[in-house]
Each structure stands twice: as C-alpha cells, then as structure tokens.
Design goal:
Structural class of chain B: alpha/beta
Structural class of chain A: mainly alpha
Distance between the termini of chain B: 32 Å
Helix content of chain A: over 70%
Number of helices of chain A: 11
Largest sheet of chain B: 6 strands, mixed
Radius of gyration of chain A: 20 Å
Number of strands of chain B: 9
Strand content of chain B: 25-35%
Oligomer: heterodimer
Largest interface: A-B, 25 and 33 residues
Number of strands of chain A: 0
Strand order of the largest sheet of chain B: 5-6-7-3-8-9
Radius of gyration of chain B: 18 Å
Strand content of chain A: under 5%
Number of helices of chain B: 9
CATH class of chain B: Alpha Beta
CATH topology of chain B: Rossmann fold
Order of helices and strands of chain B: EEEHEHEHHHEHEHEEHH
CATH architecture of chain B: 3-Layer(aba) Sandwich
Shape of chain B: globular
Helix content of chain B: 25-40%
Number of domains of chain A: 1
Number of domains of chain B: 1
Shape of chain A: globular
CATH superfamily of chain B: P-loop containing nucleotide triphosphate hydrolases
Distance between the termini of chain A: 23 Å
Chain lengths: 281, 241
C-alpha cells in the first residue's frame, strides 16, 4: 500500500487544483482574520448585546447554538483566544472540493482502471485515497491555522495565556483534526459512490451545507409539534467543532470523540463496501 | 506452450441480462489473440473481467495458471476502451505515476517512450496529444513493470490509417521482441487478420469458435468462395447463429 500512497501523493502534487486550493486556503486564512478585525472595529461595544439577543431568539425557536468563547469586544481579541477557532471548520469547503476532484477525476479520466487492474485489493485502493485525503486535510488545516495565527498575532498580539492553555489547546486541536478527518471520510465516501467530479462535488457541498439545516429543521418541528427540546445537532460534526471552541469539558470531549469516530468509521465502511462490490467502468 | 489466461465456464449477468455465457477459452504464451465480435457481444466485458474491473457471476479465470488473480495482475498491462491518462501531466509524468504505483524502476521510462514513439514530447501535456499519441501513451503506461500479458480493448478506435498501422507495428514488435502475449479486441477485422495468431469469435456473450491463424486460412481456402477472408468467415459464422 506504500506504493499506492506514493502514487496518490505524487498525483496530488502534480494536480493544478491542489495548488489552487492551497493558495485559496492561505488567502482565506489571512482574509478571515482581517474580516474579523474589521467586524469588531465597526461594531464596537454593541456586539455583546447583539450576540446575546441572537442567541435568545434562536433558543426560543428551538435551535441550540452557544455563543460561549466568542469575544464580546475588540479589546478581547488576541491570537491565543482565537487559536482554536482557526481549526474550526474553516477549511472544510475547500477540502470538499479537493477530495471531490482528487477521487472523482480518477473515474472521469478512467485512470481508476489502471489502478484497479493491478495487484491491489479494492480495500487498499480505497484506504489509500482516504489516508491521502486525511493527511492533505490535516496539512491544509494546520497551514490555515498557522497563517491565521501569524496574521492575528501581527494585528492583535498573541495575548496572555494561562499555565494550562497549551495542554487544552493541543487537546482541542487533536479533536478538531479528528472531526476534520471524519469530514474527509464522508467526502471520500460520496466521491466513491458518485464516481464523477461534478456529481461528487455537488453531493459533498450539499452534505456540508444542508445536513445542519435539515437537522435544525427537525429540531424546530419537534419543538413546535411536541413542545420538546431535542438537540440532534449535538451529533453533527460541525456542531462539535464549534463546541470545542467554547472550551473543553468531559461531555464535549466524549461527544466529539464519539461523533468523529462514528462518522469516520461509518463513512469508510459504506464507501469501501460499495467500491468493492461495484464493477469499474 | 504455457497457458497465460484461461477462463472456465465464465458467466456475467447484469440483473436479468446475461452478457457472457459459459465462456471457456485459452490464451497461450506468445499468442496474439484476436477477440472478434459485434458491438455488445461481450468483448469488453471479458477483458474487464480478466483485468479485475468486473467480477464474474459464475465460472473462473486463471492467470498464468493460478487462480490468485491479485498476484497475477502484477504481470498484466491494460488499455481498456479509451486511453486512461492524467491530462494535466506530461508523458513522462504519466509513466512516473505508474512506476510509483507498481514500484517499478523509473529507468525504463525513456526506453518505453522511445519504443512507442513518444520520446520527444518533452513538456507537452497529455491533454494536448492527438488521439494516436494518447493511444500510444496508454500502451506505454501498460508496459510499465514488464508485463507478460497485454489486454487491449479496441486500441485502434478512432485512429486514421497511419495511426492504425503504427499501433499494429508496435503490437507486433512487443510480441516479437519482448515476447508479450496479447489479447486484443477489434472491429477492424482486416487489421486483426494482419496481427493475430489465434482468434475467438464472440456472439451474444457466447464463444462460437476458437481457431489459429493457420486453421483460418485452411478453412477460407476450402470455402466455395476462395476469396473468403476473416471478415467473410466471421459474418458467415454469426449469420448462422
């Protein structure tokens, strides 16, 4: 499988879309910090009140979103207090595009035939794509965070950190990267199921954009109809990514671990089963 | 002569449709085996199954005398339907990718590119190649790792007469100089008759007949129409079935 991975990483390195996505990733990282800086400068001290009102309105309709950990004024901004947010789902759209093209193009170009007709089992071929995707996603996320942190430190300074900061930061980063890997697993699954650039791009973007919406809609309907508050969205990847930003406690850690592992494993098993079973045209 | 590929009662069904039915055939070392049949006869399906891209519904395939197809596929090269290349890469880079996949020595790349007549393509990307050049590059990719068997599915589709001649000469060269056994399917029976040493006629998923080049000429010369060639013989065969 070492050779499958070597071949996959070589293909990524030579693909134009990889470099385009990388540059976009870095531009987005710096741009996110500048946008945050601009937003806080414009809104000044009214931001805290606005956020509280927004959270209250959402809770009334049954949608549960926490605003904990979000700075309430420009003075509270620092690179250290934004560090975890730089790992939180900022790269998922770019990674969805990258994985769709990386996996889908093997079918579009017909080159999957060259791979599958060699002495590698379908499981190994799938795992190679998955591992290459996960490694690339982790690199993209780390590069995003590094660029954003450097930009934030230049604008606001790094800020003071407590003695336990780095321990918690690394734990949070580890969990965020696990959840990012879970996303990659889902993207690879859809790409292998659809077997086409455009189709897998559509499927992955729809998953990213609409799964939270669908679940939130479900929560709203249950609240209206049954007058019960259920938080299905707690078991989505992006919700857990955001929850980690507010600070780690036992519940968030266990839930994030479970969500990350379950999504990763389930998507891998479904995708692998389908890839092994279906003929390659 | 050792057996390179053997199928035993090979059957492939898609739902209720039987594409290949009880197919038993043998390809010997050194053969250029011409697989003949109309569109939809099952030629591509057979080649895809031998390459591991489709699984049989019934029956078995032996590669190099062994049922372990995963190991056997280490020694095969394939060009199935259209050339499968990375369009954004040069010829050299396409072969490097294949070398990395197969843990093959990249030193063979230059000789393979010269062999297929693409030694001077330089930095030109595969997307800018003509169809003939893409076919030759696809054959070059299939030659990485020194295969003993090449599976070529309609390798001359869409080529002009000069392109067809180039591919024919290349296949003959590979067979004679590198002792590579070839399974080739084609519609262009005139071309196939200049290449193949053994034939199999496939019709509606059934192998009607297998015969050698010599047997074909014997049958054609004994026919009432002494001008009978492979094409006439094939049409007569499927006409009766």
């Amino acid at each position: 499988m070492k050779h499958l991975l070597k071949s996959d990483f070589y293909k990524l390195r030579k693909a134009r879309y990889f470099w385009v996505c990388l540059v976009l990733n870095l531009v987005l990282a710096a741009g996110t910090v500048f946008l945050l800086d601009f937003t806080y400068k414009m809104n000044g001290d009214t931001l805290a009140a606005q956020m509280e009102e927004q959270q209250h309105n959402m809770e009334e309709t049954g949608v549960n979103i926490s605003m904990d950990g979000i700075p309430a004024s420009y003075e509270e901004l620092s690179a250290s207090n934004q560090l975890i947010s730089f790992f939180t789902g900022n790269t998922t759209l770019i990674i969805a595009v990258l994985i769709s093209l990386f996996v889908g193009s093997e079918f579009n170009y017909g080159t999957m035939k060259n791979i599958a007709s060699k002495n590698y089992s379908r499981n190994k071929i799938y795992l190679s794509k998955l591992i290459a995707g996960v490694v690339t996603a982790i690199c993209f996320t780390l590069l995003f965070a590094l660029t954003a942190t450097l930009t934030a430190a230049a604008l606001w300074g790094f800020g003071d950190v407590s003695s336990g900061f780095w321990g918690e930061a690394f734990a949070s980063i580890g969990l965020e990267l696990l959840l990012c890997s879970a996303y990659v697993s889902v993207f690879v699954m859809f790409s292998m199921l659809v077997r086409q650039n455009g189709g897998s791009l559509a499927a992955n973007i729809c998953f990213l954009e609409f799964i939270s919406l669908a679940v939130m809609l479900g929560e709203v309907i249950i609240k209206k109809v049954l007058d019960k508050t259920v938080t299905l969205s707690n078991y989505l990847i992006d919700t857990n990514m955001n929850a980690i930003m507010s600070g780690l406690d036992k519940t968030i850690v266990i839930r994030s671990l479970c969500v990350g592992i379950v999504f990763f494993a389930a998507a891998t098993l479904i995708g692998m089963h389908d890839f092994c079973r279906r003929d390659i045209r | 002569m050792s057996v390179i590929l053997r199928t035993n009662h090979l059957t492939k069904r898609y739902g209720h449709r039987t594409v290949l039915s009880d197919l038993s055939m043998t390809i010997y070392e050194g053969d250029i085996y011409g697989l003949i049949g109309k569109n939809g006869a099952g030629k591509t399906t057979l080649i895809r199954m031998a390459a591991g891209l489709a699984s049989p519904s019934d029956g078995s395939i032996l590669l190099f005398g062994k049922p372990d197809l995963l190991q056997g596929r280490k020694e095969i090269g394939t060009v199935i339907e259209s050339p499968a290349l990375y369009p954004g890469m040069t010829a050299r880079e396409n072969l490097i990718t294949q070398c990395k996949l197969q843990d093959a020595d990249p030193a063979q790349i230059e000789s393979i590119l010269s062999l297929v007549g693409l030694g001077d393509t330089g930095a030109k990307k595969a997307k800018h190649f003509s169809l003939g050049m893409r076919q030759r590059l696809a054959i070059a990719v299939s030659l990485i790792g020194n295969p003993r068997l090449l599976l070529l599915d309609e390798p001359t589709n869409g080529l002009d007469p000069e392109g067809i001649r180039e591919i024919r000469n290349l296949i003959l060269k590979l067979n004679k100089e590198r002792h590579i056994t070839v399974l080739i399917s084609s519609h262009i029976l005139g071309e196939l008759s200049k290449l193949a040493t053994r034939y199999g006629i496939l019709h509606h998923g059934v192998l009607l007949e297998e015969f050698t080049e010599n047997e074909l000429w014997e049958r054609c010369s004994k026919a009432e129409d002494h001008d009978m060639d492979l094409e006439e013989y094939f049409l007569q065969k499927i006409g009766g079935n």
